[in-house]
Structures are given as structure tokens and as C-alpha cells.
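[job 0412] stage=complex_fold ligand=zinc ion status=START
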Amino acid sequence: MLILRPKLSFEVHVEAEITPDLAEMDLKDVLNFEVYYGKLVKRLGDLFDVETVGEGKRVILEGDFSRVKWIGKGMKDGEIVVRGDVGQHCGAYMEGGKIIVEGNADDWLGTEMRGGEIVVKGNAGNRIGCNFWGEMEGVKGGKIIVEGDVGSYVGEKMVDGYIEVGNAGDFVGTEMKGGVIVVRGNCGYVGWDMKGGEIRVGGRFDLPPSFVEENGVWRGDVNVGGKGVIRKL
Amino acid sequence: MVSLEVRNGFVIDPMNGVFEVKDVFVKDGRIVESLDKPEMVVDAKGKVVVAGGIDVHAHVAGGKINMGRKMRPEEMRYPRFKSDNLRSGVGRVLLTSPAIGYEYARMGYTTVVEPAMPALYSIHTHEELDSIPIVDKMALPLFGNWHFVFKFVKNDEIEKLSNFIAWVLAKTKGFGVKVVNPCGVEAWMFHGNVYSLNDTDPLFGVSPKEVITGLISAIERLKLPHSLHIHCNLLGIPGNYEVTLETIKLTRRFENSERQVMHVTHVQFNSYAGESWKDMSSGAEFVAKEVNRNNVTVDMGQVILGHATTMTADSPFQYELFKIFKTKWSNLDVELETGSGIVPVYYSPKVRVHSLMWAIGLEIGLLVDVDKVVISTDYPNGGPFYSYPYIATLLMSEKFREEEMKRIANVERYSILPSLSEERTLEDVVKMTRVNPARILGLNDRGHLGENAKADLVIYDLPPEPNPRDYESILKALSNPSLVLKDGKIVVKEGRVVKHTWGETIWVKRDYDEELIGDELEDFFNYYTVQRDNYGVPHVRREVVLC
Ligand SMILES: [Zn+2]
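[job 0412] stage=complex_fold status=DONE, emitting C-alpha cells
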């Protein structure tokens, strides 16, 4: 198990593809792991103190990681615990394992993830569980749970998997093809151009006019011949 | 460095009948007979020395590829070049401009033709061409659906048409005449298309047959270095090989002893038999036969299995594609002259139609006479241009084709490829990538290594007659030239770009009489959104004008 702590307060974004794989590497290689500080190529050891504590494929991030991007990118197994806030693209392309964020997460959480689980105890930003720009398919599997609130665009072009959030902004499940999105609280528009899958909302929400009510649920988006379902929690 | 000697290499220079070990001398960017004291000597012992490759058809600049880039930000996630002395370049199949130039140089190509420039967008197209490093460039304006062309053809005013073409080439710094689905794109603006050479456009009542022969007459009259460059009607539609044959036959009434009178581009997409996607089969054999017996040349339009983005001026065809793939689609209308459409595709080895397209391209490459066919993918329609070494290796090695067919859905029922044992030699490939393109474009300063040719020179780590069974070595060597010279400067070493240079933009100038087409030009600027003073390309980075 590794514990990472920032050596300085970052003035610009750091791009560090930190995964639990680091916990199984030689400390020398961990310290040499390539990261970017703005446009400068740096070594992990230049920016972070690294402490090895016992066995296990785990990485603990202590301190302010709110400007550190790409944490857990493409990880396949193991666990990352962030004891604070985390930066953008956390858990993007993730395939397995678990990420726990004890603070808040930034935008692009779990983008295009394929499997695994992300739990955020605080709030998260925009485009949670979406696709990157241009890609035709978003999240294809796995689970994202945000205990607090999130911004706009949740689960755009989602194909499969499960996303659960508190309150959300506008455009939940746009162009969704499968999977389940749960908004426990209130949100804006849901399900535009939805082809499949299910959106469940606990509180108030805006329904596009292109959904048809049927046995207490709404089906659509009829504009795209969709068979998506929107229902109240 | 201004002078250099390439020593002991095996020179393959079919245009000059050279196939032997020979020293090549370079001075001030040109090939010279001999040199007293070369400033640098490159040892090419055990390697082959050839001229730089020439691409006759790749959509590398202008409105379409740029719209493709905007539509497909997902293509831009792939870094390619980030070394200190180069510009950065990214892209999967749709590359940024700097990456296009570098990738061409990296595989030994030094000249490329952008084959579909809407005249109205020529300023943008040249801005982009000016951003493509290393290679020399040309652009072909589109004429096949232009109202003025229709009018001249309708009234049989070939002299006026010739003047109009010369005026457009001068205004747009264009190199030749391109036609895409003649009359069909115009018909599309009325929700239609044309389905034979005798169908007519709804506005002027002219047929593709009249437009094609009218344009050829004008081109031959102007003695343009390049012939008509045509994307045939009904491209990409099963059964279209028949219209391709008919189009080729139109050349019979014309004669030209210097070059072809028609270049049928990405002919793979126009060599389909059958009546629907379900029973589509290969018509390559028929097309190849017709090409071989007429004064016509072709480029392959090979499909590379994987990601691609289709972008043509053929709007109705692009809409058909969109209905099949249901991904993204953009459609463009360029005032009175043309249109275009863009649709992303993924050519899958598991989809029968796609594997068949792959096979048909190779059939064309093997069945058309070796001095009439050029390697191409119609980039980015059939796939990346940087796959040319892969195509060359497939043509050279039956064993490689057998290996590839193992992973590609059953082509044997619909294509004769599995029965073709032809293997192109390395010399054949040099013809298909150097000699033929230079002749087809009417450029005599490249495609060969004779005296005073441009010192665009490539050294491959290959024997002159490589063993086709060892296709892996062939592919590796063709993909990673030991050395590439552009205008006598070393730009690539061992498959790595080492120097950033700027190539030239070549365009063709012919005299025209503005008075003769005065009425039409007045109409032109009455109906276009651009004023006469603002029309045309004011300057390009480095230009060469062929008069
Ligand atoms: Zn093309």
C-alpha cells in the first residue's frame, strides 16, 4: 500500500495517471513515474512524497488533489482512496477496482468507464459518467455513486452501468442507450434523445414533451424511436 | 548541405530504365549527373534507392477534412509528433495538418494532391495546404456540378468552358479539373440524384455524359498536364460497375499520346456488382478489363479495415451512408458549384460488405495493368494514407493476403481475390507509387531519378527483389525508410522525421479571355455571396506555376 502526499500546493494542473498498479511497483519506479506539471514533464517523486505502508494493492491520496487530473485512469483492479477533493477525469476509462473520494470530485468523473466502482462522499462537477467529446458511447459498465449533488450532464450516451446522485443539473441521461441513472433529489431536463435504459428521479424534474405516459412511467424519446423509461423513485 | 552522394545503392528508376547498383548525385535540390566533391556521402549498400512517392488523391486540406475534424474530436486523442524541432501533430485517421506532412514524409512520400477543392473555399484550402510541411501539394477545383459548366455544356460552348476553367484555375491556384458525381450533386439539391449517364440535372437538363465529354474536350483543348479526374456517378452503390464501364467508354472519342484522357479515382468504390447490399459482389474484373483497353488510369481507393471518415462532394451518397451507419452526418451546400457530406465509418473485418470492399481494392491493384494503377485509400474515406506500405505489401505477397484473409469475413464467395496468385514486384510498386502518378499528373520533374529531377529520394532497407513470403520484412522496411530526401535535404532518418521543411504548391496557368465569359462572370458575382474584388487566392507560401 502507498500513501501519496503533495509536496507543494499546485499552481497549475498536474496530470498524473495514478492507479493501484503503483502499489505493486518498486519504489524507485514509483518515484520515477512520469507525470505532467502544466506542460513540464516531471517525476512523481518531484511532486509527491511517497510512503510505503504494508501490503495490498491500494493507494491512499492525502492532502489537496483537487488540481490533480486523471487519477485512476483505466485502472483494472485494486483501490484508490482520496482523503479530500480530487481533480478532473478521475476514474476515466476505468475497468475495475474501486475509487473512494472522501471530499468532492471535479468534472468528467468516470468518463467512458467500463467497470468498477466510484464512490464520492461529497459533491461532483459536470459531465459525470459521460462520454468524451465526439465519442458515440459513454459509460459501458460499473457504478458511480455520488452522495452529494452534481452538475449538468449526467450519463450522456450511457450504454450500461449504474449512476446514482443527489440533486443534479440539466440534461440527465441525454442520448442514453442503456443502464440506470438514479437522481435522489431534484434535477432539470431528463432523457432528451434517450434510446433505452432507465432514469429514476426522487424529486422534481423537467420532462421533455417527446415522452409518452404509460402505466405511471414515461417512455421515449419518441423523436428518436426510443424505448427509454423515466419513472419516479 | 547543398551536395550529396548516395553511394552503392540499388537504384530502381523504371522511368529511366534503371535497375542496377548505381551512385546518385544531388546538388541544390536536384539530381545531377556527377559531383566532384560531395559535401556528404550516404552509403546505401544493400538497400534500394527510389524516387519520392506521389499521392494522386488524398483529402488533406479544405472544408471537408476540417469539418471532419470538428465533427470528430474523438479522432484527436492520439498524439503523433511532439519532438522539439517539429510542430506538434495529433490524430487517429483524421490528422492535423502538420501530422499529415510528417506522416507522408515518414513513409517516403513527397508529393500529394488534394483532389476536391470547392472553388469558393480555395482560400481556406490553400491556407491548410500551406500548413502541411515537407511535401509538395496541388489542389483540384470541383467542376462537375457547377451551374456555369452546365450552361456552357448545354449550349455546346466548349471555347467558353475552356476559358472558364482557365479563369477558375488562375483564381483558385488550381492544378486540374475534378468532377464528383456529375449532375448528381446538383440533383440532390432538388432531393434527387442521377442514376445513369443519360439522366439529366433538373435545372439545366444536361446529362453526366454531356458534362464529362464537354469537360474532357475543354481540358484537352487547354492541354492541361492532368486529365479529367473523376469520381463516377453512383459511387458506393451495388451494381455501379456498369456506370463505371460506360464512363470509361466515353474516352474513346478522344486521343492523347502523352497521357490518359481520364483518371477514374478510388475505383474500388465504383466496382460493385449485384443489386443490393445483400447480394453485392465484386465487379473489379470487368472494370479492370475496361481500364486496360482504354486510355484511362485509376487509383485503388483501398479500404483499410478500422476507423475512417467518409467525406466526399457526393452529398446524396453521403446521405445513403448516414442512413446505414446512423452515426453522425454533416451536409454542405456550396452555393452554385457543389456540395459535400461527411459520415464517420468503421470498416469491420466481420462485416461482409466491408471485407468485400477490402478485397475489391486489392483485385483492382492486381488486375489493372501495372502502368495504369496507383495506390490510394481516398484518404480518409477508405482509411489512413499512412497504410500505403501495408497495401503495397499485400500486393507484393500472396502469403500476406492469405494471412489477412484468415481474420476477414468470408470474401471467397463474392470475390476472386483468393484465386489471384499475382504478386507485384518491388519495381511494380515503384511504378504504382512514383512513375504512374507523375505521368498521370503530367509532372516530369518527379517520380524518377534522372538528371535534373527533383532530389526527392528514398532509401529503403530492402533488396531489389525481396522474397514475397517474408512479407513482415517488406512491410517493416516500406514503413520505415532508412532515409528520405526532400529537395535534397534529409527530412527522415530510420523512419523518424528529423527536419521540418516547407514544400511547394503547384498550380497550372492557362491564358483566358475574360471578355468571352463576361456575361457569365457578371452572373457569377451577382449570384455569389462574394464580390469580385475578394474572390480568389491572393498568395500561397511557396508556389510553382506551370504555364
Ligand atoms: Zn476522394
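Residues 107 and 185 of chain A are 20 Å apart (CA to CA).
[job 0412] exit 0
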